[in-house]
Amino acid sequence: MSQIDSLSYCVDARWKGTNVKRSGPLQRKTSLRPVSKKRQSQQAARRKLVKEQLAARPYCEAGERIYKWQKDHLGSEYARERRKTDQCYGRATDIHEPLTRARGGSITDVGNTISVCRRCHDWIHAHPDIATDLGLLKHSWTK
Ligand SMILES: [Zn+2]
Questions:
Q1: What are 4-52's pLDDT values in tens digits?
Q2: Can you give the pTM of this predicted structure?
Q3: CA 93 to ligand 1 center in whole angstroms
Q4: Which long-range contacts (CB under 8 A, 24 or more apart) does 9-13 make?
Q5: How many whole angstroms from 118 Cα to the centroid of ligand 1?
Q6: Is residue 14 in a domain?
Q7: Ion ligand 1: residues, CB < 5 A
């Protein structure tokens, strides 16, 4: 027998106790795509953009702003101390989106990019409130 005649027990109260029967074979012959064609092309465009932007803007654009904030708010001694252990790497490895994907930001818009090093990128997402004040993150309603 290739087809299942009696499927799972129906939990809907109206049909309680009845068996659900499939009226015909399944329509789908292949498995679902893990990534849609639309998303696939977006991701290809994103990879191209990241590569181009990192080549054009090889240095971290957030490090100085973060350091200045730390110096102004936490004191220069703290900032100096932190600079030793938690220093900006200088060379950018990530393309950060101030308006994140989760907030409806475009991942293929050059205007929505800041080249950052991994450490500053981590810092930005670990301190969203401060990063927003510094212009490194945007709220969805400031689109
Ligand atoms: Zn940095």
A1: 555 555 556 676 677 778 888 888 888 899 999 999 999 999 999 999 9
A2: 0.73
A3: 9
A4: none
A5: 7
A6: no
A7: 60, 63, 88, 117, 120
Report the run of H or E that residue 70 belongs to, with start and end.
helix 63-74
**Residue 108 domain-assigned (yes or no):** yes
Q: Which residues pair with 59 in a beta bridge?
A: 91
Q: Coil, strand or helix: which one is 76?
A: helix
- Into how many domains does the chain fold? 1
DSSP string, 28-66: --SPPPSS-HHHHHHHHHHHHHHHHHHHH--B-SSHHHH
Cβ neighbours, 10 Å, residue 62: 24
Whole domain around residue 67: which residue ranges? 41-142
Ligand 1 midpoint to CA 107 (Å): 20
Tell me the average pLDDT across 49-62.
97
Distance 67 CA to ligand 1 centre (A): 9
92 CA from centroid of ligand 1 (Å): 7
Query: How far does the centroid of ligand 1 lie from the alpha carbon of residue 100, in Å?
Result: 18
